[in-house]
Amino acid sequence: MKRVISIALAALILAALCMTAVSAFDNPPMYDEAELLTESDNREVQAKLQEVTDKHGVDVAVLTVDNYEESTIDEAAENVCKYSGALAEDCVLFMISMDNRKWCIAANNKGHDAFTAYGREFVGEELKPLLSDSDYKEAFLGFADYADQFLTEAEKGTPYDTNHKYTKLSDVLKRGGISLGIGLLIAIIAALALKSKYKPVRFKAEANDYLVQGSLELRQSYDHFLYTHTTRTRRKDDNDSGSSSHDSGSFGSSSGSF
Amino acid sequence: MAEILEYKCPCCGGAINFDATAQKMKCPYCDSEFDPQAFIKKDERLSEDAPDEFNWDKNAGSEWAEGETDNMSVFICKSCGGEIVGDQNTAATECPYCGNPVVFSGRLSGMLKPDYVIPFKHTKDNAKETLKKYVSSKKFSPSAFKSENRLEEIKGIYVPFWLFDSDTDAAISYEATTVHTWSDSNYDYTETSFFDVFREGSMRFENIPVDGSSQMPDDLMESIEPFNFSEAVDFQTAYLAGYLADKYDVGVDESIERANTRVKSSAEDVLRSTIDFPYATVTARGGSIRVNNGKAKYALYPVWILTTKYKDENYTFAMNGQTGKFVGNVPIDGKKVAALMAGLTVGLGVIAYIIINLLGLF
């Protein structure tokens, strides 16, 4: 009997914990507890998230809060995904906390298949500028778009990951431009070399052909150190993005600051 | 009168003083510190730097012996003024320089007898064949140039050269640098160390040729170098039979400057080659060259001059009559080069794109 009571108490405590951050997440897939969106924007984001959810059979949700009681936003997002009952087992959640300006993308089951650590960090970093600019509606709509594309790619059996990276049009154009630039540079060097080959008549700068071999007699030779000049440049901090990822079984989350 | 000595900071150019506390030369502007010994050494050496000095014995050539020029004639081009020497059997119909008819003038006179001559080793047929191969190998020349280009004239000419021998003393100072880079968690550091490098030595140059004919393009003559002087023989008029011989009209005094320039450049290169330490950069900062026992000789070198015509424009080629080295500028077909560049740009661009994507760059 005591054991049954203990289990029941533990379940109640766990349930209470799960409710802390998400007690009002009763209207998925969009719950704006931090009240960042206007009513019409909220409806627009809601509709978009619902459309993606229905299309893929995976809950695609957004949650905004002022704060949470868990020690990290990853824990808070995990509680929402796995224990709150607000989301299906197959889900992807984009959660932001305004007090400490943290973002987190958490994914479970099929959602986790589509959003690997690479995908979560990539989408988070892409949306971060919008969050920093307080352009929340565009950030949430952008998340829905990315979720649609990532889930579609996963359904094809080729989820975006480190070996199959998401490619933006701007990246394609940038890489294409750089590649053509490299090709053009080499072509110009080749053309100049060709011109030199076709115009070989030129003055000789030196008389090395007429140096008597072995005639060099070195009389004085020294190398004196004069001085040292040191410059330093601040390193670009690889961790400036601040995003970090955790994966455990069929669940994973990534978070960072904005 | 008192003399004011001022040292300049190698870093910023500001005037530097001796800092008694640090016992070093210190720049008040950029706070750089220097070892005074290095400056003293450099100072001593700079004070020793003598101006360049070139001492030449210009007694080149010799007088003709009695009757030696009896079988030689001079042709003077009315158009360009070129003077061509030939034997009496030579029938020059066109000036090898400008293509105009040349006129028989008279007996050879008023010029020095060459000391040496390198006889022709390559024949006229060799020169024609080489021209044909040379032109046909130029894939990016206009197709019409290769098919319509016509050989207008081919002449074997003994070109007058002044040959300069010298024992050369050189003292060159260089500024050299090494670069060391490292990083800590916050910064990337680049440490550039500067060195005063000095080399002094002597070397000998022999038979540096300088074209003694104003009609013969100097760059064309230097492009067919080198000539192998070990095959030169004492001058005999017999070697001129069947060939033209240009008469020098640029004197030894005027030619020395060209030899000095080349000697100076080579001396700097030779001393630089003795710097074994793998410095990141080595830049010559000054020094002096002194030519001792400089001696000039007068020689005739064998050159085939070939003139072709394409679209009313003359193209001149030269072949070293001793070594067979062949040079000449040929036109480039702009359309072919543009097509090559477009192909390379696209082809290499695609390869670069694939590599960039594979490596995940940019």
Average per-residue pLDDT of chain B, rounded, comes to: 82
Overall geometry of chain B: flat
Total strand segments of chain B = 16
CATH architecture of the domain at 15-166 in chain A: Roll
Low-confidence parts of chain B, pLDDT < 50 over ≥5 residues? 1-5, 103-109
**Total helical elements of chain A:** 7
Would you tell me the structural class of the helices and strands of chain B? alpha+beta
Largest sheet of chain B: 12 strands, mixed
What does this structure look like?
The complex is a heterodimer of chains A (258) and B (362). Chain A is an alpha/beta fold and 258 residues long. Chain A has a domain at 15-166: Diaminopimelate Epimerase, Chain A, domain 1 (Roll), CATH 3.10.310. Chain A is 47% helix and 21% strand. In chain A, strands 1-2-3-4-7-6 form a six-stranded mixed beta sheet, sandwiched between helices. In chain A, a hairpin with a 2-residue loop joins strand 6 and strand 7. Residues 11-21 of chain A have low confidence and may be disordered. Chain B is α+β, with helices and mostly antiparallel strands and 362 residues long. Chain B folds into three domains: 1-48; 55-167 and 201-272 and 290-331, no CATH class; 334-362. In chain B, strand 1 (7-8) and strand 2 (15-19) form a beta hairpin. Chain B has helices at residues 36-48, 124-136, 143-148, 218-223, 252-272, 334-359, and strands at 7-8, 15-19, 24-26, 33-34, 53-57, 72-77, 83-87, 102-107, 116-117, 150-183, 187-211, 233-234, 244-246, 281-310, 313-320, 326-328. Chain B is 23% helix and 39% strand. In chain B, strands 5, 6, 7, 8, 9, 10, 11, 12, 13, 14, 15 and 16 form a twelve-stranded mixed beta sheet that branches. A four-stranded antiparallel beta sheet of chain B has the order 1-2-3-4. The relative contact order of chain B is 0.19. Chains A and B meet through helix 7 and strand 5 of A and strand 4, helix 1, strand 10, strand 11 and helix 4 of B. Strand 5 (217-234) of chain A pairs antiparallel with strand 11 of chain B.
